[in-house]
Amino acid sequence: MNLSHKATIMTATEMNRALTRIAHEIIERNKGAKNLALVGIHTRGVPIAEHLAKLIENFEGIRPQLGKLDITLYRDDLSEIALQPVVKKTEVPFDIHGMRIVLCDDVLFTGRTARAALDALIDMGRPAVIQYAVLVDRGHRELPIRADYVGKNVPTSKQEVIKVKLQSVDGAEAVELLEIEQ
To answer: Domain span at residue 92?
Structure first.
């Protein structure tokens, strides 16, 4: 599949501004950072969760607990993605029972990643609340899933792709709109 650059949707500055707003919204909705944990969905949800945790700590003086979630084996399209899918490490070094959990990801599209993340998280215990934070919501839901915190809504066509670039993963920071070349 060939992709061509169509537009830059968010610069590094705009991404930071959106994440700062999301951090404030998380604090407000959860009445602070007590009993709060951020769990990033591999790959780009992890650095987003880490960034949000730093911001929340700066604002509240309390650093939320952090976890990393691999949803590969919970995907409903596992047989379609690869014969030997790459499984990353899930690290949730705390008991989630009774916690206020915010799942973090880069892009919300069909809702299938969020569903898989919910299944993986519920297998670990029973949190008090699970919320969902994404940098970009691009629409085209296939499941009844919505994000509680959204950095930017970007209506897209099915011939477009949203690519989030993060410094720690990609060596650059931007959100790009790409077009699938026919």
So the answer is: 3-74+88-180
**Dihedral angle of Cα 70, 25, 156, 179, to the nearest 10 degrees:** -60
Residue 131 pLDDT: 98
pTM above 0.85, yes or no: yes
Please write the tens of the pLDDT for every residue from 9-26: 999 999 999 999 999 999
- From 157, 150, 170, 178, select the one nearest 15 (Cα to Cα): 150
Specify the pairing of strand 129-137 against strand 149-153.
Answer: parallel
In which order are the strands placed within the sheet that holds 149-153? Answer: 65-69, 36-41, 100-108, 129-137, 149-153
User: Which CATH number do you get for residue 176?
Assistant: 3.40.50.2020
Distance CA(72)–CA(79), nearest Å, equals 11
Report yes or no on 127 lying in a domain. Answer: yes
Residue holding tokens 């596992």?
78
Would you say the C-alpha torsion 132, 96, 17, 173 has a positive or negative sign?
negative
Evaluate if residue 80 carries a pLDDT over 80.
Answer: no
- 175 or 82, higher pLDDT: 175
Residue 82 inside a domain? The answer is no
